[in-house]
Specification:
The protein is 52% helix and 12% strand. It is an alpha/beta fold. The chain folds into two domains: 166 residues, Rossmann fold (3-Layer(aba) Sandwich); 106 residues, 6-phosphogluconate dehydrogenase C-terminal like domain (6-phosphogluconate dehydrogenase C-terminal fold, Orthogonal Bundle), CATH 1.10.3660. Strands 3-2-1-4-5-6-7-8 form an eight-stranded mixed beta sheet, sandwiched between helices. β7, α6 and β8 form a beta-alpha-beta unit. The radius of gyration is 21 Å and the shape is globular.
Length: 288
């Protein structure tokens, strides 16, 4: 099976490594020639191709590039594929890209998805086969995808070792703003704050504890990937930032007032997240 992966960095490269051995021939397409050559050198892909030649060969296309680029490129891809080719995107926002091809004649050959996996690293060197194992992926607007396309996507995610949630695009972008995108904003903001206050890099390095390190780790995440994510999900992301600022301001006021009882209560209430995150095999209810 000819599988074309557009974008052979962390996500695309990890998909390629995970599906090796399943009778696949993996063709890599990347605007960054260094990334493409490195992916070939590392054995992540079997060949490098330009986009047009790859589209003519493809039976399955995996779109693993920044969300702004994917949104622009997807209509062209659908214009130039065969009638049985399936296209799956893996972007972190869904409303924009889904709306952009809603009326396309080949919309049914496309599956909108978002595998909830990643690291702060980027590029083909960062790819590894187990990136997706045990994680969740979200498929949006499944009713607009043909059965054969949806089945292909579900099989892919089964091979990757992921469980699947189904929801509409608006629901996805709203929820993901809180559980993923806001987290990155907080990490970037904390990094900027500490670098602004602590001008001595040696002090930051020597005194920063594991809590700081784990919180700002994702501030090392790719600028090219996260800038368009924030832009495309601005509606829900700004709402989540507003709510976060309200709660942060409340924390500040309680600390200023030296209100030990209220501070204790707020921290205790925050601790309840443990009951959610520590549940084994938690089943998430989603709209079908």
């Amino acid at each position: 099976m000819n599988i074309v992966i557009i974008g052979v960095g962390l996500i695309g490269g990890s998909v390629a490594l995970a599906i090796r051995g399943f009778n696949t021939h993996i063709i890599g397409v990347d605007s960054n020639t260094d990334h493409a050559n490195k992916a070939l050198e590392l054995g992540i892909i079997d060949e490098i191709s330009d986009l047009d030649n790859a589209l003519h060969k493809a039976q399955l296309i995996i779109l693993a590039i920044p969300v702004d680029a994917a949104r622009k490129l997807l209509p062209y891809i659908l214009d130039n594929i065969q009638d049985n080719t399936v296209v799956i995107d893996m972007g972190s926002t869904k409303v924009g890209i889904c709306n952009n091809v809603r009326s396309h004649a080949r919309r049914s050959q496309y599956v909108a998805s978002h595998p909830m996996a990643g690291t702060e690293n980027s590029g083909p060197e960062a790819a590894f086969a187990d990136l997706f194992k045990g994680k969740k992926t979200i498929i949006c607007e499944k009713e607009l995808s043909a059965d054969f396309a949806l089945q292909q996507a579900e099989l892919l995610y089964k091979i990757l070792g992921m469980s699947i949630l189904y929801m509409n695009a608006e629901e996805h972008d709203k929820h993901i703003a809180y559980v993923s995108h806001l987290t990155h904003v907080i990490a970037y903001a904390l990094s900027l704050t500490v670098q602004e206050i602590e001008k001595d890099e040696k002090t930051i390095f020597e005194m920063a504890g594991s809590g700081f390190g784990s919180t700002v780790r994702i501030a090392k995440s790719s600028t090219d990937m996260w800038t368009p994510i924030f832009k495309q999900n601005a509606k829900y992301l700004t709402a989540s930032i507003d709510k976060y600022i309200d709660i942060l301001q409340h924390f500040k006021e309680v600390i200023q007032e030296n209100n030990d009882t209220k501070l204790y209560e707020m921290i205790k209430e925050a601790n309840k997240i443990r009951n959610v995150l520590d549940k084994p095999n938690m089943q998430v209810k989603t709209k079908k």
